[in-house]
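Below is how a single chain appears once it has passed through the pipeline. First comes the sequence as given, then the structure the pipeline wrote out for it. We keep one example in the README because the format questions we get most often are answered faster by looking than by reading.
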Amino acid sequence: MTIVRHSILYFALLTCFASLMSAQPVRFGIIGTDTSHATAFANIFHDASRPDHVPGARIVAAYKGGSSDIPSSADRVEGYAAELREKHAVTIVDRIGDLCPLVDALLLESVDGRTHLPQMREAVSCRKPVFIDKPFAASWSDAKEMQRIARDANVPWFSTSSLRYSEFVLQMEGKGQRGAISWGPGPLEEHHELDLGWYAVHPIEVLFTIMGTGCEKVSRVSGPHGEVITGYWRDGRVGVVRTLLPSGGYGAVAFGDKAVIQSPANPSFSYAPMLRAVVELAKTGKPQVPNDTTMEIFAFMEAANQSRKADGALKLLPRW
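Resulting structure:
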């Protein structure tokens, strides 16, 4: 009987310990404080009074990074780092490797996609899940290499636009049985070879959420007020992205089998649904958006680049 009682007590203690551990918030470390996302995410995780609060996570440490030749990076990196340190008690470290013992998962936030490959090389040494914010990579070759090093290190990763989780997009998800059109601002950044990844990735991600994967060919035509990127799916459907210059709002139309669904005039957005998915990645190691979907989106952008260089000629998506 004594052995039985001891066994019951032992398993009760184990259950209690597991429960306590599961109640502990996920500790995130930021790579790159040169984006407003760094402080916006901290506010959503840390402020329980916010209507968009995401519980169960905290940002505890950050590596500043920064790029001197991109003003939107160089001019903001120190200010956002100071806000994280002073408002949120985030520890600022000198090297990415210093984050490893402090965190459970990483948020690769650097605004300059050129830094993502070298930063990812260091991040995978932590052997912890990594969320990669936009732009996922500055070039197609970088995107493929990032996928390879994460796979070789057995590190789960996740990258998506927050628009994928917007209410108007979720209402259209998978309902482009006859095709779809999406639109949004498309400013470019001169240092990024994969230029659509800088900002047009948002309406592109919306298109893929509505249409699903399976795009084979792309054409891209540019004009002074934006660009038209047309994708041809292997089942005969056509999806179109219209970028708006110098700026514009977001929206989409899904052509379904039974109805045409159009987004509202001024759709609302929130980072919270995406951040809940990021927390789930940290807990389970499973991305809600499959890595192959992300790679197809970037292959779509690479084919679009090749099409623009060829005056709008159709180009096949490269393989990865």
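Residues 15-21 have pLDDT under 50 and may be disordered.

See the next section for the split statistics.
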